[in-house]
Amino acid sequence: MHKSLRGSAVILAATALIITGCSSGAPASEGDAATADVAAAQATLAEFAQPTGFPVTTPLEALPTGARVAYAQCGTPNCALFGDLMEAPAAALGMELTRVDAGQTADEVATAFDSIVAGDYDAVIVSSIQPALWSRYLDQLVADEVPIISTGNSGLDPAKVFLNAGDESLNTYGKVLADWVTVEADGPAEVALYVTPELAPTLTMQRAFEERIAEVNPDAEVRVVEIPVAQFGSTASQIVVDDLLAHPNTEIVAFTLGEMMGGLPSALKAADITGLKSIHAASTPATLEGIAAGEFTAGITTDFGVYIWTLVDAAARAVVGQDVDQAVRDDELVMQVVTAEDLPEDNSKGWSGYPDFAERFAEIWGVQL
User: Model-level pTM?
Assistant: First the structure.
């Protein structure tokens, strides 16, 4: 339970519109026997106590020298970071990478894909853009025999793309969030789950979370709260604070994206909200620093360096006619659930389960960095 303005009808009314979900199970009364399957949740978390396996091991048969690759970049900071991370591996492989800003609106996405379809690219990488916004362009690219590497585009027809990365890992994120909540709660608890409706990956995580929590902790009282993507970095933290003030018995909060949490520690402190347990998926350098400083409890980290180099590796293999490794096909990301004791002092460059990943890829590709 956190400190708050308990019983304030004004705050409850002011924040009622924020809540978009409801309880995933009837709240248990004080003293009820816990029905949570903590052992099952712990077993899952044990798989992520250390970095998971490196996904790419098969040597590249030929270099895609001169290949032109377009990256359709969604309008979030993480997508921009992905673009930054793609440049070095693309250059090492001799490919020409063009970043095409797809923004956040339907018009911006259409403009971006008009450019991509007309650009006569050898491969296209698309990150976290609602498939409904570019489905007709997808069909055109398929007709033009342009291989597509998709990541974070939930609901996409996998038969139409060379690689459909992201769906299974998003389900894993949601499941691990639910398992961590179950272990920390050790029984019934009031939990807030924060999602962003414009970003389909967070909704996939929500579904996986709700399915898993129903299995391992059906007495948990879960509400789903929306944080619009346009509020990232501005009023997102206030949405969280208003929600928590309206629900003073909240014990645990789970965020489907670390990007949602900008400015949250200071906002919670200003509102005198303390004692929360928190976990988030897709940790950023800022949220890792927050974990290390004790401002957040835990995060599900992903080795973005390995992941993005894997996507570029997939583009190269698509160009030269070679399939990806099965671990890549199965969407096995390098992940770990971390707390402060797992992190170094400096997290400004993010987390890596394999700090030598660039050298590993260079050996697999037969190139010099």
Answer: 0.80
